[in-house]
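Minutes, methods subgroup
Present: GH (chair), OT, SY

1. OT presented the first of two proteins processed in the latest run. Sequence and structure tokens recorded below as shown on screen.
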Amino acid sequence: MREVVIGGVGMTSFGKFLERNLKSLSEEAVASALKDARASVNDVERIFFGNAAAGVVTGQEMIRAQASLRNTGLDGKPMFNVENACASGSTALNLAWWSVASGQSETALVVGVEKLSHEDKAISFGAFAKAVDLEEPLPEGVTTGTGSLFMDLYAAKARKWMKRTGADASDFARVVVKSRRAGSLNPLAQFRKETTVDEVLSSRMVSDPLTLFMCSSIGDGGAALFICSEDYARKHDIAPVFIRASSIVSAKADGSGELVAVRAAREAYEAAGIGPEDVDVVELHDASAPAELIHYENLGLCAPGDAPKLIRSGDTDIGGRVSVNPSGGLLSRGHPVGATGVAQIVELTQQLRGRAGARQRPGAKVALAENNGGQLAGDSAVALVTILST
């Protein structure tokens, strides 16, 4: 297996852009990544295109990459359409990494893009509701009265987790305050206004204990990565950010065993030859505020039950011992689902390059991304963990 390098990154602003389509978002992200890599479309050998919900929201099925990229100059090249719920973008990266690491190709382009906003919000929420086994009964205590199935699922998990750890709603609010502060420093983030614990707690209740500010929002956006072999990077004078590990696991159908995020993290740590104590900066899947705290434990950033203590300590803030979601995460950067996993890598690459500006975690050398999606047997249906280093 060869070393694989991230040579260029690019992304659009994230937000609700009713006037934009998949083509517009894809074209901007691709052009930005190629410019960053000082590469052209002629340097791209294969394209891996992550998108989750176009079939439901826009009606575009089957040839999403070919349709979205037809005006970029990439037409005619091998394109692979990847759909894997909220982990579509990181799954596209995993496949591209394998392509380059195995020697199948010298370069690859990873694109993650999503158009979720729609004049009819029921269509947008309906797209998320399809990311479950439709024949599986909902978990005990979960209702669909809010219109947002996944927030109901997160709320049920949060209630159980609060009983186990002693966390309270103010801990979830602290996550949002941290997230909004990071988002205010990110010019591409969907939400860029800081908030307070009281404002978070007093925002509209969505699904107890989740208030509106504790829930990731519907949004649109695109992100892209140009990846290449180490030899290619050396020949083209590209300062390398290495992909040290990329693991992917799916849920067990009977709900047995460890959570997918725990398994994916362990596999990635073993492949990279490091532990959680070696990680400087993390982008994780905070689709709801409680999810960030739960993932502190899943990723080994703290001992089981210590996540409330960790968020209260400030150690996961910008510049902290392990900076978590300095981009603003899903809560503030935004969560256009097919783009999310790629956007995480864009942020971490900039962190390892030392180019994150006011969001910079000083001296960052090792970074980790955790991206999960869907729901199966009480767990996320899929999880990926990617580890990067300089």
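2. SY then presented the second protein from the same run.
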Amino acid sequence: MLNEERARKAAEQCVDYALKQGATAADAACVAEESTDVQVRLGALEDVQRSESAELGLRVFVGQQVASVSTTRFDDETLKELAERVVDMAKAAPEDPYARLAPKDRLYTHEQTAAALDICDEAAQWDATSLRSMAEAAEDAARSIDGVTNSEGGSVQAGGGLMALATSDGFSGGYRSTVFAMSASVLAGSGSDMQRDYAYHMARHLDDLEDAASIGRRAGARAVARMNPVTLPSGPRPIVFDPRVGGSLIGHLTGAITGSAVARKASFLAEDRGKQIFPEAISIIEDPHRHRGLRSRLYDGEGVTAQPHRLIDKGVVDNWLLNCSAAAQLEMETTGHASRGSGGSPGISVSNIHLEAGDVTPEALMSDIQEGFYVTELIGMGVNGVTGDYSRGAGGFAIRNGKLAEAVSEVTIAGNLRDMFAAIVAADDLEMRRAINVPTLRIDGMTVAGH
């Protein structure tokens, strides 16, 4: 894979060449990735994939006219031609009154290093053979569970990435990361009564990856537990979200407070900055500096220093998520949430997020529910970001007299995100396993559509 020094130098060269061609400002991002992915099924090797990619994107400004191009070639002649071509494109482009580079006083100053984040496992060693052994161990453990009758396989992925960024304001930076993932997916039952479930784990360091047998056994037990499902009667009832699916609710929140959506009036929360939309007990924290976090970063896609944020502070929307363009549209300052690939203008993204734990156990959270639904799977994307209307297929377990009961499938849960957010109650079982982490969540007042 392209090394950090070469990537940063290529980005700096592109910016320099663009300025010499007449650009008034420019930035360049270099993104490189490599991965090895091994899949097994029923004890046999099914697929091995190896991929490597490197791409550089150059964005130039001629006044307020903007254009961008990308390339997978890094030789000097190609970079010069790239700069010449994109400057000509910018001169022919319409003006964008909101396009701009990040303010110099907000740029990352290298006070903290990538070593502090520890998101690159320099010591990890792997090859297709070792990854295959791990995938086989996960699948074998899943298939060993009584009631498991078939398998969709076990898989392990190991890889790394590199992001380098340079701007005409003098910013230049880059750092590497690694990621490891393991999963198992199996089926229980037979014929039309077969049920599927899975388990997975991701980590920045290979040694942090959960034991293969543990992942496999969890996948098998989950599949068996879902056998002989029923549907539920239609009507309102309390819904409890398992942590592995509850994070999707936070994804809907971040989409609604993204500055570009707010500026277009395409968010149901567009008028709610500074207002309380969650109960006072709910706070949602973003921490880009989490040690070995799956989305940890030193700076955003425009070079702005990454800082912790309280997205929701005691129930209140603290701020929008802004890159420089969205900030300009809303007459605000960037919050350091720009995302950047190798092509096009910066988007908006978040880093590591968690919803703070409550003070009751999941069992206590459900103890007073006479008839409810515990959701472990969500299907489809029936969510309207403009109105907040929410409707998704779901599977899981009935809650009867405060306890989990029979498996449930083929139902739909519905509500409005504004009402759902206002009713969230959190349990105390928060674990930092994902990029978005939540404890078990309860929401009363939603509707189940079953039979």
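Chair's summary of item 2: Residues 229-451 form one domain.
Next meeting: continue with the remaining queue.
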